[in-house]
Amino acid sequence: MKMARGYQTSVTLSDNRVFTIGGAYSGKRMGKDGEVYNPKTNAWTALPGAKVGPLLTKDHEGIWREDNHAWLHSWKNGTVFQAGPSKAQNWYGTAGTGSQKAAGIRDTVGDSMCGMSVMYEPGKIFSAGGSQDYTDSAANNRAHITTIDEPNMPSVVERVADMAYPRGFGNMVVLPDGKIIVTGGQKRSKVFTDDDGILQAEMFDPATKAWKTLAAEAVPRNYHSVSILLPDGRIFTGGGGLCYLAKVGANSANCNKLVDHADGQIFTPPYLFNADGSEAARPTIASLSSTKVKVGGKLSIKMAAACNGSKFALVRIGSVTHSINSDQRRIPLTQVTGKDDAFTVTLPNDSGVVIPGSYYLFVLSAEGVPSLARTVQVTL
Q1: Is 26 within a domain?
Q2: Nearest partner of 264 among 235, 301, 231, 305, judged by Cα
Q3: What are the two backbone dihedrals, phi and then psi, of residue 265, each rounded to the nearest 5 degrees?
Q4: 120 catalytic residue (yes or no)
Q5: Is the pLDDT of residue 363 over 80?
Q6: Residue 146 falls within a domain, yes or no?
Q7: Which of the following is catalytic: 37, 134, 165, 223?
Q8: Full-prediction pTM beyond 0.85?
Q9: What pLDDT band is residue 254 in, cutting at 50, 70 and 90?
Q10: SS3 of 211, please?
Q11: How far is CA 142 from CA 108, 109, 115, 178, 237, in A?
Q12: How is residue 170 annotated by DSSP?
């Protein structure tokens, strides 16, 4: 990169380049404007117009925390929408020397550092939790839906029902049916502790805008924890703690090993159970016409049995750290033809909606039970 960064966020663009911004944690302690990586030329380009100042939070520890972990969501024509953790939201452009334009305010109360966000369907971003300061700061339970459409236009923000629990350092996963699962976090964000850890998972349904409290984890999942969708529609949650050492092999005597959780659990969402608690029958994908498809292209899906009333969705395979999974998104596939056991789906014809990369393809039964996913590579 053009400068040393740590705790920045990176996101894949609609043209397959990679945008990054922030990262004052490492290198010179200063707010760090954007830059972009082009895999075709294997080169980084500084974007001095992609100013970091408008996305800064206010933190009692100063700049080395204030440009960390931006909630970035790639969008149309090489643009990026920054939904948080600052209460201010911004658009970033990656053409030429880059650009920044204010999009509005998510929340008037304050910032939400180490909160969570996900694009659960195109142009719809759900966010929740976080705290004003990176550490030693009361977490919040506030939640919002941000709607975006054309780049550089103001966002529309709706305050929705609060979570049952405040959560700092929690994690968020979108399911193939569009519901959102939140795990872990603590009532007061405090690095390398298990204090006031929230064990219960919660599920938000965008259709009803209501929360439901679900099963509890065995151990707290706070700072340095992760959660990520698995191809069987379940969720891996794990980690937490893992005290920082200046170099490999350094003395860890001052680390609290009791809060290091080098393990994980599997969370099984409600859609995999019948009303009586028994395991629900899944639809089965017998074959796909291809494991690669272009943006706007078609996929033919052969099911093992008749599956009328099914729904289809792509969920992008991302990676997660520090509550951030910037490439995670769900794309409902609504252009569907066919019946019984044979269907053809057409992808949206916009690479800002269907970002290039690897996706899970799920088929959901009429009852909402997901298949085991097939992996599909979406290309330009």
Answers
A1: no
A2: 235
A3: -135, 165
A4: no
A5: yes
A6: no
A7: 223
A8: yes
A9: confident
A10: strand
A11: 11, 10, 10, 20, 22
A12: -
